[in-house]
Amino acid sequence: MGDFSNYYDSTTVFLQTGQIPFSIKWTYTPITMAVFAILFSAVDFTTGFTILLICNLFSGMTVAYFSINIIKRKMELDIFDQALILLFAIFSIYPIVNMALGQVNYILAAVITAGYFAYERDEDIKAGVYFALAALPKLFPGLLGVYLIRNRSFKAAIAAIWTGVIGIIIGALLFGMSNTRSYIEFLLSGGIKTGFFNNGPPSADAHIVTLSRPLSHIFPDASHLQYTVLSVLLMSVVLYVCYRDMSTLVDRLVAFTVTLIAMIIIIPPNMVYPVFVLFPIIPLLYLLDDPEVLGIYTTGILVMNIIFVPTELKDIVAMLPVQMGVLDWTMAIVTQVLSVASGPLIGLLMIIAGSLLQSLKRDGPDAV
């Protein structure tokens, strides 16, 4: 309940003082506080957590529903596969961890999934509104606008912009310019987990998923802003390759996948954020027909689920019948690897590699 406790504590401060306490515990836009202020004005902590848990369970069912419907556009799914998708969408490691922490990530991921489904149904305005609603609390889903513009979905992009502007205005009207100004100052101060990179590479036990981590080992004296710029440049190349041809459903799903991954690895988020990529990865596991690409995707997903840091892994391995010398030697290697890139980041980079291979093969001499 760690993150939910942060929501509760921050909302309590706001209800008592009228000021939103922007910090590492509360990094959301002012309008997001309206949801929690209403929630915690009406119910206690336990009831509030239960309500959020139910919302997360519904989000998992939403992701499963849209995944199944996207897959059915290209192939039949028997009841076993549909049940498997539902179980994965609710009970795989990222949904479980997000639900245990009382996070809102899966709810936002479900909204993004609904937006993509609307986009595929040519409901551009609805898609833009969904994407903007997902971006209002945490901002970074705003990168999905790049995907819309690349597809020349200008109605969706305009709908997203207007939804975002209206949300910001409502937030300012509800909470005053003082809170709005404080939020802008908090963002400009680099308050969102940038402290991990104040003194070179972060600890191997830091629970973050970001390109800045390996970059901090290559350029230890660079600033966080420089890491961010480098990350944007690197992911821009990936997006360029995967955006070149989006004429088929698989092409668009691959492009959407790398867009979502870029969204969560340019900034330094917690290890629970890969929940955002469950869709469209689930449909791609069924729709990718190249065995090499599918193998890379599958391996990437498996590695992505290694969410433990070295200290936690050591505690787990210590319970196994392993000699102390072997344990120390193994953990030394593991610590070195995970200090450069966490398990989720390595898995996501493998999925990026699979996406690039899929796009490049499509452009090859045997492409049809």
Written overview of the protein:
Helix content is 72%, strand content 0%. The protein has 368 residues and is mostly helical. Helix 11 packs antiparallel against helix 12. The longest helix has 35 residues, at 154-188. The mean pLDDT is 91.
Q: Which helices and strands, and how do they pair?
A:
Elements: H1 2-17, H2 30-42, H3 45-71, H4 79-91, H5 93-101, H6 105-120, H7 124-138, H8 144-150, H9 154-188, H10 212-218, H11 224-243, H12 249-265, H13 278-287, H14 291-304, H15 310-317, H16 324-340, H17 343-363
Helix pairs in contact: 1-2, 2-9, 3-4, 3-5, 3-6, 3-13, 6-7, 7-9, 11-12, 12-13, 12-17, 14-17, 15-16
Order of helices and strands: HHHHHHHHHHHHHHHHH
Number of strands: 0
Low-pLDDT runs of 5+ residues are: none
Distance between the termini: 50 Å
Beta content comes to under 5%
Give the fraction of residues assigned to helices: over 70%
Classify the secondary structure makeup into a structural class.
mainly alpha
Biggest β-sheet, characterized? none
* Structural Rg: 21 Å
| Oligomeric state of shown chains | single chain
Shape by Cα distribution: globular
Mean pLDDT: 91
Number of helices: 17
Question: How do you describe this structure in short?
Answer:
It is built from 17 helices and no strands. With 368 residues, it is an all-alpha fold.
List keywords for this structure.
mainly alpha; 72% helix
